[in-house]
């Protein structure tokens, strides 16, 4: 127990200079660790927000037929389920590109038709509703309901109940004379926030029958969206289906939708961790300098301890424990400060919109604290502190008691 008391006494030195350098060492650790916690939480939150927005809008796995639509066939679905037991739900969809015309403005959009009876088991679009209601029924005049992204609504000044036109140009190959546009009217039934800036700018959701009529494909569908029991199984499921269904079908998992962006986020997280870890390393050098000064200032105390029977190992442990205690206090305060700063970032982002959607694709980001990240930060900080204490601790252990007692 007296070893702990000695460490605390050495740390709480009565010498003003040592108290100042100890405080600066702790402050450096606090800043470095807090920066790491904030960076890791924000990047993890960005990754999770991006992942959720993709899965909510497209499902886990997408299956489409190459070269055109396919018949909505229960036999085909049974074959798909047999290949991937992890499938818990599926829903057909129709996907087509068109041009929206309203108030003398034009913009390219994606019109997606969903089945109202099955889409909720696969997609989480209803929770993305921000205005209006999530319904697809036509008005009394026959105009079909459509739900639009909030960016598209803002671009065209669309409000609930407004009517807009969607135009899809169609032409037979090598026949310019056959060019003719298809036109369909929709009224705004609801406004969605899909979490992605680019999707909010060009997304129109409607009943699958309306989309089939617009595309003139009868009862056929473009493909199926699948939901699995676990997100992590999507890649394997997509691979299995691509092998079993053959080249006639095209499969993608949710990560394929933005693979480059997901890979960039993962790489960015690793790079940020090691770049900010340099701040922690610099703080640990400060701890090492503090311990060297402490060794010189405690020359006489070390000599007395050795005279009383303390061996080199005891002195090494004494100064190592002192450095680790500084690192532990700094790391602990840094983690607490980092968590507080993260919540401050979330508040500021929600109030003032700090994240430009045009650049980062997402219009808002939540922070996410992963215990694996915090544990790695804490462990790495303490390990670097430990390495920084070895040199001054060994220097103190090598001091000769006679030299230290000469001036006492």
What do these coordinates show?
With 408 residues, this protein is an alpha+beta fold. The chain folds into 2 domains: 198 residues, no CATH class; 181 residues, no CATH class. 54% of the residues lie in helices and 20% in strands. The chain contains 13 helices and 12 strands. It starts with a helix and ends with a helix.
Task: Give the structure's gist in a few sentences.
The protein has 408 residues and is an alpha+beta fold. 54% of the residues lie in helices and 20% in strands.
What's the arrangement of secondary structure elements?
Layout: H1 2-11, H2 16-58, E1 61-65, E2 70-71, H3 74-83, E3 87-102, E4 105-114, E5 129-132, E6 144-149, H4 150-156, E7 163-170, E8 180-192, H5 197-201, E9 203-207, H6 208-215, E10 220-221, E11 223-228, H7 234-245, E12 249-253, H8 259-297, H9 299-307, H10 312-352, H11 357-360, H12 371-397, H13 401-405
Helix pairs in contact: 1-10, 2-8, 2-10, 2-12, 8-10, 8-12, 10-12
As for the number of domains, it is: 2
Average pLDDT works out at 81
What's the tally of helices?
13
Level of helix content?
A: 40-55%
Strand proportion, as a percent range, falls in 15-25%
Cross-sheet strand order for the largest sheet: 3-4-9-6-8-7
Uncertain runs: none
| Terminal Cα span | 27 Å
- What is the H/E string? HHEEHEEEEHEEHEHEEHEHHHHHH
Whole-angstrom Rg: 32 Å
């Amino acid at each position: 127990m007296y070893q702990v008391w000695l460490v605390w006494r050495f740390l709480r030195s009565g010498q003003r200079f040592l108290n100042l350098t100890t405080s600066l060492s702790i402050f450096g650790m606090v800043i470095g660790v807090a920066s790491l916690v904030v960076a890791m939480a924000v990047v993890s939150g960005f990754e999770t927000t991006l992942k959720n927005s993709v899965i909510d809008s497209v499902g886990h796995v997408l299956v489409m037929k190459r070269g055109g639509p396919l018949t909505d066939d229960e036999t085909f679905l049974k074959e798909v389920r047999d290949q991937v037991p992890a499938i818990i739900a599926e829903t057909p969809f129709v996907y087509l590109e068109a041009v929206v015309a309203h108030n003398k403005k034009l913009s390219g959009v994606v019109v997606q038709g969903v089945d109202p009876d099955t889409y909720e088991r696969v997609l989480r679009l209803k929770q993305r509703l921000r205005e209006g209601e999530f319904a697809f029924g036509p008005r009394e005049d026959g105009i079909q309901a459509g739900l639009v992204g909030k960016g598209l609504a803002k671009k065209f000044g669309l409000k609930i109940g407004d009517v807009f036109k969607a135009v899809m140009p169609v032409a037979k190959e090598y026949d310019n004379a056959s060019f003719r546009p298809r036109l369909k009217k929709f009224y705004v039934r609801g406004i969605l926030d899909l979490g992605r800036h680019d999707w909010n700018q060009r997304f129109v959701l409607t009943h699958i029958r309306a989309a089939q009529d617009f595309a003139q494909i009868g009862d056929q569908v473009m493909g199926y969206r699948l939901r699995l029991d676990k997100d992590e199984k999507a890649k394997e499921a997509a691979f299995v289906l691509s092998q079993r269904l053959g080249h006639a079908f095209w499969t993608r998992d949710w990560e394929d939708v933005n693979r480059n962006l997901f890979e960039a986020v993962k790489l960015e997280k690793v790079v940020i961790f090691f770049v900010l870890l340099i701040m922690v390393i610099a703080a640990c050098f400060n701890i090492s300098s503090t311990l060297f000064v402490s060794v010189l200032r405690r020359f006489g105390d070390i000599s007395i301890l050795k005279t009383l029977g303390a061996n080199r190992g005891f002195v090494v442990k004494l100064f190592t424990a002192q450095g680790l205690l500084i690192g532990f206090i700094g790391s602990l305060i840094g983690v607490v400060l980092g968590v507080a700063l993260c919540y401050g970032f979330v508040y500021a982002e929600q109030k003032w919109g700090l994240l430009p959607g045009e650049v980062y694709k997402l219009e808002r980001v939540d922070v996410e604290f992963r215990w694996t990240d915090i544990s790695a930060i804490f462990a790495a900080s303490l390990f670097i502190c430990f390495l920084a204490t070895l040199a001054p601790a060994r220097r103190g252990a090598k001091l000769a008691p006679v030299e230290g007692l000469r001036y006492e």
